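batch job 7 of whatever, protein = MGMT family protein
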Amino acid sequence: MPRADLLEQIYTIVAQIPEGRVTTYGRVAKMTEGATARMVGSAMRHLPDGHGLPWHRVINASRRITEHGGAERQRERLRAEGIAFEAGGRVSAERLWP
């Protein structure tokens, strides 16, 4: 798990991702003061109960959902926000934030 200060930065950034948009683990990491894409992924995996963060809006660098236990729920939540998946499961680059 990332240090507490990096976790706070990651969570603050993820909270800002607008509905209908996505970003990548790496993009979030670049907006912090030292987190890596892996650290962002770890932070998303270990969110506390009742967090309310839009974790589902964070995808991998190939603009796909990383396969994990919540991957199907993540796809459903993104579809509900109007995100369509292209061939191969990619999200359109036009949906990337920022």
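notes: The chain has four helices and two strands.
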